[in-house]
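cache lookup: miss for this entity combination. No prior model stored, computing from scratch. Input as submitted by user K.M.:
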Amino acid sequence: MTFSTIQALVLRNLYLYTRTPVRLVELVFWPLVDLLVWGYLTVFLQKHTGDSFPYQITFLIGAVILWDILFRAQQGVALYFLEDVWSRNLLNVFSAPVTNADYLVSTYVIGFLRAAVTSLLLAVLAIVLYSFNLFELNWSLLPFVFNLLVFGWSLGMISTALIVRWGPAAETLAWAVPFFIQPFAAVYYPVASLPPAIQWISQWIPCSHIFEGMRDGLKDGVVSWNDLAMATGLNAVYLALAGWLFVRVMRTAREKGLLTKFVAQ
Amino acid sequence: MASPVLEATDLVKDFGAVRPVDNISFELRRGEILGLLGANGAGKTTAINMILGIVTPTSGTIRVFGKDLARERIAILRRMNFCSTYTQLPGNLRVWQNLTVFGKIYRVPNLKRRIDEVLDLLEIRHLKDRVSGHLSAGESTRLNLCKALLNKPELLLLDEPTASLDPDIADKVRTVTKRIREEDGTSILYTSHNMRDVEEVCDRVVFMHKGRILFTGTAAEILSHSNEQSLESLFIRVARGGEIESGEGKGEPDATT
């Protein structure tokens, strides 16, 4: 792993944003739409249901912000690969002295930066518009956020591996993969509200523990260490598996000439 | 005699039932420009991709700078570079931004100065602040060449560098190719469909057809073995499936030298 290579690969992506400010719209616009829709739905439900609707309904806003951290981290990894496909730069990168580790770490950095920009903006707007303060989680917010980042990176690596394996026609997976797990991840509702069979699936998804922990933390002010430990343990396993899958698929891509198919498209 | 910069030995590549490269062997000597010539589907690009490590050979070995590419790919890639008419640098970055990114990847010392040097060499320094996607085909090809020359590669792979260029720009590219060989001793593997390119630039030629090597030698040697008047007429005869009378299918390194 080489610092200058990682720096170069990160720089390449940052230049895109300085060159094309309209790309910032993608980082800001859709998350903002989500926040406004879910935020005003929350306000409506609180106003019209009175005490019959619990305070936890405001956690929808927290869920929007935390889900976006995961989604942006995943996008950072998956779209990084597609940027090179779209600009016909893929062979220049993969014929350069870039190791798998250099490549992946630079995508992690981009994923982190994307998530940081979006989540900070949403968190501040949530305070201003809805008096919802995610920072009430204090320091426990950091491990929650870190776990979401890591799971986003894992999903990003899986998305990229599938795109490499199945070719340009599978590009849409870059956006679809996080939503495959979203219904089971208890993002906007407690795990307990799911049918038992889906609850079983949910327990194996790291971010479902994060969203449960976030709800408990904001409700009681107590950090759910159990949820954090489960999320961290699962994340370690998924990160290793996703990394292994990525390396394995890149090896297969070299054997089958898959990378060159992206050039010929 | 100095060891070759590049040695491909018994190289085979299978993609399922298709065999685009069928047991080829050749070597590139230090400071030499070796042409890889053949019609579409001859296996040139697959061979280049294997030398770049983008495609893994089914069997055979590639040694670059005396090292096994399969084992020391990254160390080898640091000392070589690549330019293809089929790849581009990101069109939404400025020229200097693209060169900065690749300069850092290749760990080029004094990068800003080196960027100016290569832009001067290719006569496009005035385009330094331009957006790469707004360049003409000729300018874009020269930018690709700038990227390929940034790290002063000891081995340079040029995949049809003059394709789609007008005669003036194509001539400039050929001139630069010869100049960097003379000034820096760069060894160059050069694929082209342009016979003039090959005759003017290459010291030797590997003539491929359907994944195999038909001839290896200087242009004059190949013509004398094939009983043709020009490489172009030989190219057309081979592409149209004409019978090859001399040196056919030997597939041995330097078979005619």
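stored under new cache key. The interface with chain A takes residues 13, 15, 45-46, 49, 52-56, 74-75, 77-78, 82, 84, 86-94, 97, 100-107, 131, 147 of chain B (CB under 8 Å).
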